[in-house]
Amino acid sequence: MSVKSFFAKIFANIVVMQQQKWIIKPVETQNALFYSLIQQAKTTQFGKDHFFYVIKSHDDFTKYVPIRDYEALKPYIDKVVAGEKDVLWKGMPLYFAKTSGTTSGAKYIPITKESMPYHVEGARNAILFYIQETGKADFVDGKMIFLQGSPEMTEKNGIQVGRLSGIVAHYVPKYLQKNRLPSWETNCIDDWETKVNAIVDETKKENMTVISGIPSWVQMYFDKLIDVSGKSVGNLFKNFNLFIYGGVNYEPYRKKFEQMIGRKVDSIELYPASEGFFAYQDSQKEKGMLLLLNAGIFYEFIKADEFYTENPKRYTIGEVELQVNYVLIISTNAGLWAYNIGDTVMFTSLKPYRIMVTGRIKHYISAFGEHVIGKEVEEALQTALQNTDAVVTEFTVAPEINPNSGLPYHEWLIEFEKEPNNLDDFALQIDNALRKQNVYYDDLIVGNVLRTLVITKVPTNGFNEYMKTEGKLGGQNKLPRLANDRKIAQFIHSIL
To answer: In this predicted structure, what is the pLDDT of residue 103?
Structure first.
């Protein structure tokens, strides 16, 4: 055992014990945080406009502060971007995390001096929980790669602007800097394909022990490594045994990753976003990620099936239930108030509070009232994959409302690494697994409103070509699992 790994274990034990202080007092932690946030922001423009000075309870908060998404909060954010102080939070933010919007173009998410430390500590603590539970720390002596956006920044009225992953790159601890890849110069390459090629050149002869990134883009990195070296990833990196990921569910990719690596490796799931670092996997033995209740974020939860009703109930942490699909609402020390980030989550444990991300409130299929969500299609595909040697690279699902003949159906557009022996049987297995999870979808099949799903085989790199046309190849961008429209489907059909 090296000196570095020895001290990593000691540090991990200390941090895990410190975290227990809030883990065992979840409701009290959130209540104290709620009142602290209100007090700190009551003299801001937003606080004055929403009567923070009279808010004494969560009921008061729901009365005076409505749920907002970025579009609804944009008039306040525009003032911050223009250089005004004390708008959403005291003073000015340290950074704007720039993300790609849908209807509003670029989105500017404020990051303050109070919120910034939690963006850094989240990933660190996830690794420390892993070390403390497993006793594995030798990986700290090897090289670590984090596939991320460019760390280069621009400036807007005195405030630094960049991608979240690029901002966080400026806060990598010194003791990790010499172990960290890729180089600064490579990280600054904008074109994703050029960047991946440069990363391959820099890492192919290194002792890589930890690899981190969104699975779909790490998959591209692995593919290029194998092409260049002629070896499996695990044979090339003999000490690589830890994959850290976030952004999308790893399960649809796991089988192909294990094939590319040549063995199973441990994994840690993170739930970071520009709006805050929400959760991380704290145990290799338990399902779900530990919801961070002390990280400058007050959480509210709205049942997904009630979200679009008038005045849906806003639940706090002490009121949530297991296995209910909730829309995640946050109020933060970066000045986001009752803010809908668009994600849906489900609790897998209440002691401690662990969640899994189930999808996006806007990314679902309900063309016929079925309201199929991301978690359901991912688990249905996983069920089918367990019964075959097929390997899937990527997939998405869209409704076909007006087929040339027959009943409407859900079209599954799948890029296979290896096709199943019987595609029709594979489709039926997915369909049956989905019907078991979603009673509305089952009713539509039984009632002959829909027919069994149809699989369309996507050419190799077909989804990458689509993402390229959207200017979203690489970085933090993710292919939507579900849509109520046929935009992606139409592109795929155009290249068949």
So the answer is: 45
Kind plus residue range of the DSSP H or E element containing 252: helix 251-261
Instruction: Give the separation between CA 186 and CA 22, rounded to whole angstroms.
Output: 39
Contact 336, 315 (CB under 8 A): no
Task: Kindly provide the residue ranges of all beta strands, DSSP E only, lying in 128-275, ordered along the sequence.
Answer: 143-146, 154-156, 159-162, 180-181, 208-212, 242-246, 266-273
Nearest alpha carbon to residue 413 among 433, 429, 393: 393
Report the distance separating Cα 426 and Cα 479, nearest Å: 22
Q: Which amino acid is at 364?
A: Y
What residues of the chain score a pLDDT lower than 70? 100-105, 173-177, 475-476
Distances (CA, A) of 156 to 80, 96, 108, 160, 382: 10, 9, 10, 6, 45
Q: For 438, list phi and psi in degrees, rounded to 5.
A: -125, 105
d(CA 5, CA 28): 35
Q: Among 348, 269, 352, 356, which Cα is nearest to 19's?
A: 352
d(CA 127, CA 245): 12
- Per DSSP, the three-state class of 452 is coil
**Omega into 352 within 30° of 0, i.e. cis?**
yes
pTM, two decimals, is: 0.85
Q: Considering only CA atoms, which of 289, 353, 338, 356 is closest in space to residue 22? A: 353
What DSSP character marks residue 139?
G
- Cα(430)–Cα(453) distance, integer angstroms: 8
Residues 6+ apart with CB under 8 A from 470: none
**Other CB atoms within 10 Å distance of the CB of residue 354:** 21
Query: What sign does the CA torsion over 464, 469, 472, 474 have?
Result: positive
What does the alpha-carbon distance between residue 466 and residue 322 come to, in Å, rounded to a whole number? 37
Nearest Cα residue to 110 out of 124, 127, 128, 89: 89
